[in-house]
Amino acid sequence: QVQLVESGGGLVQAGGSLRLSCAASGRAFSTYNMGWFRQAPGKERGFVGAISRSGDHTDYADSAKGRFTISRDNAKNTVYLQMNSLKPEDTAVYYCAAVWSLSGVLHVTAPSYSYWGQGTQVTVSS
Questions:
Q1: Do 79 and 22 contact (CB within 8 A), yes or no?
Q2: In this predicted model, what pLDDT tens digit does every residue of 64-86 receive, in sequence order?
Q3: Burial call 32-53: b when 16+ CB within 10 Å, e when fewer
Q4: How far apart, in whole angstroms, are the C-alpha atoms of residue 25 and residue 104?
Q5: Count of CB atoms within 10 A of residue 11's CB?
Q6: Torsion of CA 122, 88, 73, 44, to 10 degrees
Q7: Could you tell me which residues are beta bridge partners of residue 69?
């Protein structure tokens, strides 16, 4: 089992950057594929990106490609979401999620993940 705590959210102007962190507790962090999702008011939770256990594979939603970067530091049990060129439509609560995996196959749907953090608010002003 793993517990996840996100941090790094806040208020930023359009065009700015934020780096979100997700700290994991529990054992064997390196056996979990990790994902980032976001949920805006009145909308469903949507996929942002994912990273494999070792960090050598990533996948992104079209809205994130070229602007967001996922990375992880298994020694620190932490996964990051670097967000650049932020837009007002990026405003949402951002969640990290974990799923235990034996493979590098990345999941893009929320029900595929077993563990979730509490979320961190990102607000982008125009």
A1: yes
A2: 999 999 999 999 999 999 999 99
A3: bbbbbbbeeeeeebebbbbbbb
A4: 21
A5: 12
A6: 70
A7: 82
